[in-house]
Amino acid sequence: MVDGPTPEQLALQLQTFFDDQPAAVLLENGRILFDLRLATATVAAEHGHCVLHVWSEERNCIRHVVNITARKTGLRLHVLRMGQTKPQTMELQPQQRRLPSQRDSTRSRYIPLLERLLPRHFPDFKVEGLRTAMDLERSFGPSYARGTLVCGNSAWALIAINAEESQSLVDGILTLGVLWLHHCREHSGGRRLVEGLRLILPRGKSTVTAARLAWMNLRAAKWELYELDEKTEELYRREYGDQGNFESRLVHAPNTAAAEERFHPAIQRVQALLPAHAVAHMEVAFRSGSEVGLLWNGLEFARVRTSAAENSFARSEEILFGSGANATLLTEESAPTLRESVAQLVARRQPSGDKRDTLYRQQPERWLESMLRRSLDSIDAMVEPQPVYAQVPAFSAADRAVLDLLAARRDGRLVVIEIKADEDLHLALQSLDYWVRVRQHHHATADRPASSASKSDLERFGYFPGKQLRADAPLLYLIAPALRIHPATEVVLRYVSPEVDWTLIALDERWREKVRVVFRKRREK
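Predicted structure:
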């Protein structure tokens, strides 16, 4: 087998590209995830991996880069998500550099455009206070134009975004719109009734917002969605509804009992390499019927999978550690390497570890997930500890900044659990996205009577075997450390439809030691 590039070589190639192309974009499945003018990218060769970390105010992305293919249009990255063994591809493409001053100019030109067209489309309303000024205290950035439409004692909050902004910023408009509506109401001084929110998005880019608006509270506010063709200066009203616009997929649940029996000897072999005190806390994550991941505090360090024997149809189990081109087969010769790396992981990724250590800081949501799996009763005594599924159904689009779990209560009601270890402005509506998808796959009360004995999609695909699931819509639990809950989360949740039965659960900041609930806030009945 020809050796691939080393992590150091991959990191150098990436860093050189970033230095030469500071205005590049990172794409996945043809969709722009990050505009590097508005995001931060770091690359490092550490612990036998080339780790690419890109983040912005909208999302966070960490990938192990296992290979790079140079193309005329940029770089094709062959990457691994945490906990996965099949490489995926991402694209780094240069684009014509638009300096911050040019970006600001585009945003400032958008204001006169709105001032011209709004009186034509809303002749009974006066446009007031249109601006894009930064207001960090209230989380308002310059990407969104905001103002009010006033008619006598009545008014509407208005928020709009121009067509040159990234899709992720466009998709985030409803969160900022709710905050702007709330701000307008609080500062109306009783002089006006702010009836609702009007959103203006670029033509053809309102799919996510339309699907989310279907689950906003019609008693709390009125909601209107428009698309703007900036070339013709025409405004089009878009109706919204629960149209299933979030692309997701549902795969069959793995047979964990059969997988546990099949992989038991291999798992024991890995356990024998762990420090004695760590064996009981090693986690086994069943990815499928043919692969399991072995984790320590949420971080995968090895995996076991079935493989075909050479010149035979027989299948056997193999143990791999490392990832991608650097994955190493566990043998008698490589066992000391795995033993040493696991000892380092166990020593450094623990509650008393160095907070500056890469192993300590990596994948905090996964660490929090592992803690919650061990103590779900501390969150809700009615939630059954097993089975608990991650990312079901899985989103087919770009990364989301939250981790999704799906569990069931003892009474058969589904529970969607959203986990966030760091502050996230968009937590409420990203959680809603996942809740909607689970509800859709489960045929909740809107589609299936609660008394119905027919099986849902989830049950037919093997989830919660032997469990009679209630047809009610799932409960939604949003879980985060108390000091990491963005102030916007509670505000946005107040405007979500009462059909979404949510609970915001704040944890003690020392959750790595023990999960303790500090407070809960529930949807008002």
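Summary: The first helix runs from residue 7 to 20.
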